[in-house]
Design goal:
With 99 residues, the protein is mostly helical. It has a domain of 66 residues: 434 Repressor (Amino-terminal Domain). It is built from 6 helices and 2 strands; from the N terminus they run E-E-H-H-H-H-H-H. It has a two-stranded antiparallel ribbon with strand order 1-2. The protein is globular and about 30 Å long. It starts with 7 loop residues before the first strand and ends in an 8-residue tail after the last helix.
């Protein structure tokens, strides 16, 4: 697979471009996870600032996750669930279309 130099920085390929090229990113799932986290946060009466503090991750990352802009890592999912005082599986308790 040939990659245009425009997507490279210091010889490294931009991760977003790479995931898009190989089709791993699922935007519908990312949106659903973000919506789920936002709903659980609001149910717990937490601001994004308080969740970020309780999760020990930056508020900017909470915003990106809630907006479905990033593919949250397992570590981030665990941190957010800890901040919400729930089991990580509760964050993933939703339905998404397969196709």
């Amino acid at each position: 697979m040939s990659i245009s130099p425009i997507y490279e920085t210091n010889g490294l390929i931009d991760e977003t471009v790479l995931w898009s090229m190989i089709g791993i990113r699922n935007d519908k799932a990312l949106k659903k996870i973000g919506e789920r986290i936002r709903a659980l946060r609001l149910d717990a009466n937490l601001s994004q600032y308080k969740l970020a503090d309780a999760s020990d991750i930056p508020r900017s990352q909470i915003i990106r996750i809630e907006n479905g802009e990033v593919n949250a890592t397992i570590s981030s999912i665990i941190a957010v669930s800890r901040g919400l005082n729930i089991h990580p599986k509760e964050l993933l308790d939703f339905k998404i279309p397969i196709i």
